[in-house]
Amino acid sequence: MRDAVWTALKTVNDPELHRDLVSLGMIEHAEVEGNVAHVKVNLTTPACPLKGQIEGDVRAAVLAVPGIQDVVVTFGAMVRPPAQPALPGVKYVLLVGSGKGGVGKSSVAVNLAVSLARDGARVGLLDADVYGPSVAHMMGQGGARVTANAERKMQPIEAHGVRFLSMANLSPAGQALVWRGPMLHSAIQQFLKDAAWGDLDYLIVDLPPGTGDVQLSLTQTVHVTGAVLVTTPQDVALIDAARALDMFRKASVPVLGVVENMSYFVAPDTGLTYDIFGRGGSRKLGNLPLLGEVPLDVEARQDADRGLPAVLAHPQSPAAAALTQIARNLAGRVSVQALAHLPEQLPVV
Fold first, then answer.
1. What are the structural domains, with CATH classification, of the chain?
2. 52 is in an annotated binding site
3. Which of 166, 171, 295, 310 is positioned for an S-S bond with 136, CB 3.0–4.6 A?
4. Which positions fall inside the MIP18 family-like domain (predicted)?
5. Annotated binding residue 105
Protein backbone atom coordinates (compact mmCIF):
# COMPACT_ATOMS: atom_id res chain seq x y z
CA MET A 1 0.00 0.00 0.00
CA ARG A 2 2.94 2.31 0.68
CA ASP A 3 4.04 1.99 -2.96
CA ALA A 4 0.52 2.83 -4.09
CA VAL A 5 0.60 5.99 -1.98
CA TRP A 6 3.88 7.07 -3.59
CA THR A 7 2.40 6.35 -7.03
CA ALA A 8 -0.62 8.51 -6.16
CA LEU A 9 1.63 11.35 -5.01
CA LYS A 10 3.31 11.36 -8.42
CA THR A 11 -0.01 12.62 -9.82
CA VAL A 12 0.01 15.72 -7.59
CA ASN A 13 1.63 18.76 -9.17
CA ASP A 14 2.93 21.85 -7.44
CA PRO A 15 0.44 24.49 -8.71
CA GLU A 16 3.18 27.01 -9.48
CA LEU A 17 6.05 24.78 -10.58
CA HIS A 18 3.83 22.47 -12.69
CA ARG A 19 5.80 19.36 -11.81
CA ASP A 20 4.83 16.54 -9.50
CA LEU A 21 5.81 16.67 -5.85
CA VAL A 22 7.82 13.44 -6.01
CA SER A 23 10.09 14.47 -8.90
CA LEU A 24 10.57 17.86 -7.22
CA GLY A 25 11.80 16.10 -4.07
CA MET A 26 9.07 17.73 -1.98
CA ILE A 27 7.84 14.52 -0.31
CA GLU A 28 9.95 13.88 2.78
CA HIS A 29 8.11 10.72 3.72
CA ALA A 30 4.89 8.84 3.00
CA GLU A 31 4.03 5.98 5.33
CA VAL A 32 0.94 3.92 6.04
CA GLU A 33 -0.24 2.88 9.50
CA GLY A 34 -3.31 0.68 9.31
CA ASN A 35 -5.66 2.56 6.99
CA VAL A 36 -4.14 6.01 7.63
CA ALA A 37 -1.48 7.56 5.38
CA HIS A 38 1.02 10.00 6.86
CA VAL A 39 2.59 12.35 4.30
CA LYS A 40 5.10 15.11 4.96
CA VAL A 41 5.54 17.74 2.25
CA ASN A 42 8.54 20.05 2.22
CA LEU A 43 7.48 23.31 0.55
CA THR A 44 9.94 25.28 -1.56
CA THR A 45 9.41 28.32 0.67
CA PRO A 46 7.88 28.83 4.14
CA ALA A 47 5.78 31.57 2.52
CA CYS A 48 4.19 29.25 -0.02
CA PRO A 49 1.02 30.97 -1.30
CA LEU A 50 -0.68 27.72 -2.32
CA LYS A 51 -0.12 25.55 0.74
CA GLY A 52 -3.85 24.94 1.19
CA GLN A 53 -4.29 23.81 -2.41
CA ILE A 54 -1.33 21.45 -2.16
CA GLU A 55 -2.76 19.90 1.03
CA GLY A 56 -6.15 19.40 -0.61
CA ASP A 57 -4.63 17.83 -3.74
CA VAL A 58 -2.45 15.46 -1.67
CA ARG A 59 -5.42 14.35 0.43
CA ALA A 60 -7.60 13.76 -2.64
CA ALA A 61 -4.93 11.73 -4.46
CA VAL A 62 -4.02 9.54 -1.48
CA LEU A 63 -7.63 8.95 -0.41
CA ALA A 64 -8.19 7.46 -3.87
CA VAL A 65 -5.79 4.61 -2.98
CA PRO A 66 -7.79 1.47 -2.07
CA GLY A 67 -7.65 0.81 1.66
CA ILE A 68 -6.75 4.36 2.68
CA GLN A 69 -9.45 5.96 4.81
CA ASP A 70 -7.64 9.03 6.13
CA VAL A 71 -4.61 11.16 5.30
CA VAL A 72 -2.53 13.18 7.75
CA VAL A 73 -0.57 15.85 5.87
CA THR A 74 2.21 17.77 7.62
CA PHE A 75 4.48 20.43 6.21
CA GLY A 76 8.08 21.50 6.39
CA ALA A 77 9.81 24.08 4.23
CA MET A 78 13.22 24.64 2.74
CA VAL A 79 14.18 27.46 0.42
CA ARG A 80 16.37 25.60 -2.05
CA PRO A 81 19.71 27.20 -2.87
CA PRO A 82 20.06 28.52 -6.41
CA ALA A 83 22.69 27.33 -8.85
CA GLN A 84 24.53 30.61 -8.22
CA PRO A 85 24.11 32.00 -4.68
CA ALA A 86 23.89 35.78 -4.54
CA LEU A 87 26.42 36.14 -1.69
CA PRO A 88 28.13 33.71 0.70
CA GLY A 89 25.29 32.46 2.89
CA VAL A 90 22.62 34.44 1.00
CA LYS A 91 20.45 32.45 -1.38
CA TYR A 92 18.41 35.15 -3.12
CA VAL A 93 18.74 38.93 -3.51
CA LEU A 94 15.49 40.69 -4.35
CA LEU A 95 15.42 44.37 -5.34
CA VAL A 96 12.41 46.55 -4.54
CA GLY A 97 12.46 49.56 -6.81
CA SER A 98 10.46 52.29 -8.44
CA GLY A 99 11.17 54.99 -10.95
CA LYS A 100 10.20 57.77 -8.56
CA GLY A 101 9.84 58.58 -4.90
CA GLY A 102 6.63 58.84 -2.95
CA VAL A 103 5.02 55.59 -4.11
CA GLY A 104 5.53 53.72 -0.82
CA LYS A 105 8.45 51.59 -1.97
CA SER A 106 10.18 51.49 1.43
CA SER A 107 6.96 50.64 3.23
CA VAL A 108 6.38 47.78 0.81
CA ALA A 109 9.97 46.53 1.20
CA VAL A 110 9.77 46.57 5.01
CA ASN A 111 6.45 44.73 5.11
CA LEU A 112 7.59 42.16 2.54
CA ALA A 113 10.68 41.38 4.62
CA VAL A 114 8.77 41.13 7.90
CA SER A 115 6.00 39.06 6.33
CA LEU A 116 8.46 36.55 4.86
CA ALA A 117 10.22 36.30 8.23
CA ARG A 118 6.91 35.82 10.04
CA ASP A 119 6.17 32.90 7.70
CA GLY A 120 9.45 31.27 8.77
CA ALA A 121 12.05 32.41 6.22
CA ARG A 122 15.47 33.82 7.15
CA VAL A 123 15.37 37.38 5.87
CA GLY A 124 17.71 40.34 5.61
CA LEU A 125 16.78 43.89 4.60
CA LEU A 126 19.24 46.37 3.10
CA ASP A 127 18.28 50.03 2.94
CA ALA A 128 20.17 51.09 -0.19
CA ASP A 129 18.47 54.49 -0.28
CA VAL A 130 21.60 56.14 1.11
CA TYR A 131 20.40 59.73 0.69
CA GLY A 132 16.93 59.16 2.14
CA PRO A 133 17.07 56.13 4.46
CA SER A 134 13.74 55.35 6.11
CA VAL A 135 13.91 51.62 6.85
CA ALA A 136 15.44 52.08 10.32
CA HIS A 137 12.55 54.30 11.42
CA MET A 138 9.92 51.97 9.95
CA MET A 139 11.55 49.06 11.80
CA GLY A 140 11.42 50.99 15.08
CA GLN A 141 15.22 51.20 15.32
CA GLY A 142 15.98 54.78 14.30
CA GLY A 143 18.19 55.33 17.33
CA ALA A 144 20.16 52.06 17.11
CA ARG A 145 23.81 52.09 16.06
CA VAL A 146 25.54 49.54 13.83
CA THR A 147 28.42 47.75 15.56
CA ALA A 148 31.26 45.53 14.35
CA ASN A 149 31.74 41.90 15.27
CA ALA A 150 35.00 40.13 16.15
CA GLU A 151 35.87 39.82 12.45
CA ARG A 152 35.42 43.60 12.05
CA LYS A 153 32.35 43.14 9.91
CA MET A 154 29.22 45.24 10.29
CA GLN A 155 26.66 43.51 12.47
CA PRO A 156 23.13 43.98 11.08
CA ILE A 157 20.52 45.18 13.54
CA GLU A 158 17.71 42.72 14.29
CA ALA A 159 14.06 43.67 14.61
CA HIS A 160 10.80 41.78 14.00
CA GLY A 161 12.77 38.68 12.95
CA VAL A 162 14.66 40.56 10.21
CA ARG A 163 18.34 41.55 10.06
CA PHE A 164 18.77 44.96 8.47
CA LEU A 165 21.30 47.66 7.68
CA SER A 166 20.56 51.31 6.98
CA MET A 167 22.70 54.42 6.62
CA ALA A 168 20.39 55.97 9.23
CA ASN A 169 22.07 53.73 11.81
CA LEU A 170 25.57 54.76 10.70
CA SER A 171 25.35 58.55 10.35
CA PRO A 172 24.18 61.23 12.80
CA ALA A 173 20.43 61.80 12.79
CA GLY A 174 19.34 64.46 10.34
CA GLN A 175 22.74 64.78 8.67
CA ALA A 176 22.66 64.99 4.89
CA LEU A 177 25.10 62.84 2.93
CA VAL A 178 26.66 64.81 0.08
CA TRP A 179 28.40 62.04 -1.83
CA ARG A 180 29.46 61.49 -5.40
CA GLY A 181 29.02 58.23 -7.27
CA PRO A 182 32.26 56.49 -6.20
CA MET A 183 31.40 56.93 -2.52
CA LEU A 184 27.95 55.47 -3.10
CA HIS A 185 29.50 52.49 -4.87
CA SER A 186 31.89 51.96 -1.95
CA ALA A 187 29.05 52.11 0.58
CA ILE A 188 26.98 49.54 -1.31
CA GLN A 189 30.01 47.24 -1.58
CA GLN A 190 30.50 47.45 2.19
CA PHE A 191 26.83 46.84 2.94
CA LEU A 192 26.91 43.69 0.83
CA LYS A 193 30.37 42.23 1.39
CA ASP A 194 31.57 43.66 4.71
CA ALA A 195 28.46 42.82 6.71
CA ALA A 196 27.82 39.69 8.76
CA TRP A 197 24.48 38.82 7.19
CA GLY A 198 24.78 35.16 8.16
CA ASP A 199 22.63 32.56 6.43
CA LEU A 200 19.66 34.12 4.66
CA ASP A 201 16.97 32.77 2.38
CA TYR A 202 16.15 36.24 1.06
CA LEU A 203 17.93 39.59 1.16
CA ILE A 204 15.43 42.33 0.33
CA VAL A 205 17.04 45.52 -0.99
CA ASP A 206 15.12 48.79 -0.78
CA LEU A 207 16.44 50.82 -3.72
CA PRO A 208 16.49 54.60 -3.99
CA PRO A 209 14.21 56.24 -6.56
CA GLY A 210 15.45 56.53 -10.11
CA THR A 211 17.91 54.56 -12.23
CA GLY A 212 21.31 55.75 -11.04
CA ASP A 213 24.54 54.77 -9.31
CA VAL A 214 23.15 52.56 -6.55
CA GLN A 215 21.17 50.42 -8.97
CA LEU A 216 24.22 49.97 -11.21
CA SER A 217 26.48 49.14 -8.25
CA LEU A 218 24.10 46.46 -7.00
CA THR A 219 23.68 44.74 -10.34
CA GLN A 220 27.45 44.77 -10.85
CA THR A 221 28.30 43.52 -7.35
CA VAL A 222 25.99 40.55 -6.73
CA HIS A 223 23.95 38.05 -8.67
CA VAL A 224 20.47 39.56 -8.37
CA THR A 225 17.62 37.05 -8.39
CA GLY A 226 14.97 39.51 -9.48
CA ALA A 227 13.24 42.81 -8.90
CA VAL A 228 9.85 44.01 -7.73
CA LEU A 229 8.44 47.22 -9.17
CA VAL A 230 6.33 49.40 -6.88
CA THR A 231 4.08 51.99 -8.45
CA THR A 232 0.86 53.88 -7.85
CA PRO A 233 -1.87 53.68 -10.49
CA GLN A 234 -1.66 57.14 -12.05
CA ASP A 235 0.17 57.77 -15.32
CA VAL A 236 2.78 60.12 -13.83
CA ALA A 237 4.05 57.25 -11.63
CA LEU A 238 3.79 54.67 -14.39
CA ILE A 239 5.98 56.74 -16.71
CA ASP A 240 8.85 56.49 -14.23
CA ALA A 241 8.09 52.86 -13.38
CA ALA A 242 8.47 52.07 -17.08
CA ARG A 243 11.94 53.65 -16.99
CA ALA A 244 12.87 51.47 -14.00
CA LEU A 245 11.57 48.42 -15.87
CA ASP A 246 13.77 49.32 -18.84
CA MET A 247 16.78 49.72 -16.53
CA PHE A 248 16.28 46.26 -15.01
CA ARG A 249 15.96 44.69 -18.43
CA LYS A 250 19.13 46.38 -19.66
CA ALA A 251 20.92 45.10 -16.54
CA SER A 252 19.54 41.57 -17.19
CA VAL A 253 17.63 41.57 -13.90
CA PRO A 254 14.37 39.58 -14.14
CA VAL A 255 11.34 41.57 -13.00
CA LEU A 256 9.31 39.17 -10.86
CA GLY A 257 6.22 41.34 -10.66
CA VAL A 258 4.64 44.67 -9.87
CA VAL A 259 2.97 45.95 -6.71
CA GLU A 260 0.30 48.59 -7.16
CA ASN A 261 0.40 50.66 -3.97
CA MET A 262 -2.30 53.15 -2.93
CA SER A 263 -4.47 51.27 -5.40
CA TYR A 264 -7.81 52.20 -3.85
CA PHE A 265 -9.40 53.47 -0.64
CA VAL A 266 -12.15 51.83 1.39
CA ALA A 267 -14.10 54.37 3.43
CA PRO A 268 -14.21 53.06 7.02
CA ASP A 269 -17.67 54.56 7.70
CA THR A 270 -19.49 53.33 4.59
CA GLY A 271 -17.32 50.53 3.18
CA LEU A 272 -17.47 52.17 -0.24
CA THR A 273 -14.38 51.83 -2.44
CA TYR A 274 -12.85 54.88 -4.10
CA ASP A 275 -10.19 54.72 -6.81
CA ILE A 276 -8.50 57.96 -5.80
CA PHE A 277 -5.50 57.57 -8.10
CA GLY A 278 -7.16 55.48 -10.79
CA ARG A 279 -7.02 51.75 -10.01
CA GLY A 280 -5.37 49.18 -12.29
CA GLY A 281 -2.84 51.44 -13.96
CA SER A 282 -0.01 48.96 -13.25
CA ARG A 283 -1.38 46.71 -15.99
CA LYS A 284 -0.10 49.26 -18.49
CA LEU A 285 3.44 48.07 -17.72
CA GLY A 286 3.03 45.09 -20.00
CA ASN A 287 2.93 41.41 -19.19
CA LEU A 288 4.41 41.72 -15.70
CA PRO A 289 2.76 39.52 -13.06
CA LEU A 290 0.66 41.62 -10.69
CA LEU A 291 1.80 40.55 -7.23
CA GLY A 292 -1.02 42.50 -5.62
CA GLU A 293 -2.83 45.76 -4.97
CA VAL A 294 -2.37 47.58 -1.65
CA PRO A 295 -5.12 49.97 -0.56
CA LEU A 296 -4.60 53.34 1.08
CA ASP A 297 -4.83 52.64 4.80
CA VAL A 298 -4.58 55.18 7.62
CA GLU A 299 -3.50 52.49 10.10
CA ALA A 300 -0.66 51.37 7.83
CA ARG A 301 0.64 54.95 7.67
CA GLN A 302 0.37 55.33 11.43
CA ASP A 303 2.13 52.00 11.97
CA ALA A 304 5.04 53.07 9.74
CA ASP A 305 5.36 56.35 11.63
CA ARG A 306 5.62 54.57 14.97
CA GLY A 307 8.07 51.95 13.71
CA LEU A 308 5.85 48.88 13.58
CA PRO A 309 5.20 47.19 10.22
CA ALA A 310 1.53 46.91 9.33
CA VAL A 311 1.71 43.12 8.86
CA LEU A 312 2.51 42.86 12.57
CA ALA A 313 0.56 45.78 14.02
CA HIS A 314 -2.75 45.17 12.22
CA PRO A 315 -2.40 41.86 10.35
CA GLN A 316 -6.14 41.69 9.57
CA SER A 317 -6.32 45.15 8.00
CA PRO A 318 -6.87 45.32 4.22
CA ALA A 319 -3.39 46.75 3.59
CA ALA A 320 -1.61 44.20 5.80
CA ALA A 321 -3.57 41.30 4.30
CA ALA A 322 -2.63 42.49 0.81
CA LEU A 323 1.05 42.85 1.75
CA THR A 324 1.13 39.39 3.32
CA GLN A 325 -0.30 37.84 0.17
CA ILE A 326 2.12 39.84 -1.99
CA ALA A 327 5.06 38.48 0.03
CA ARG A 328 3.81 34.93 -0.51
CA ASN A 329 3.22 35.56 -4.20
CA LEU A 330 6.77 36.89 -4.46
CA ALA A 331 8.19 33.82 -2.70
CA GLY A 332 6.28 31.70 -5.19
CA ARG A 333 7.74 33.66 -8.11
CA VAL A 334 11.25 33.08 -6.73
CA SER A 335 10.54 29.35 -6.56
CA VAL A 336 9.39 29.39 -10.18
CA GLN A 337 12.51 31.32 -11.16
CA ALA A 338 14.71 28.79 -9.35
CA LEU A 339 13.00 25.85 -11.07
CA ALA A 340 14.67 26.76 -14.34
CA HIS A 341 17.99 25.78 -12.74
CA LEU A 342 16.79 22.57 -11.05
CA PRO A 343 17.55 19.14 -12.52
CA GLU A 344 14.64 17.35 -14.12
CA GLN A 345 14.66 14.64 -11.44
CA LEU A 346 15.47 15.46 -7.84
CA PRO A 347 16.31 12.78 -5.28
CA VAL A 348 13.52 11.50 -3.09
CA VAL A 349 14.24 11.78 0.61
1. 2-77 (3.30.300.130), 90-339 (3.40.50.300)
2. no
3. 166
4. 2-74
5. yes
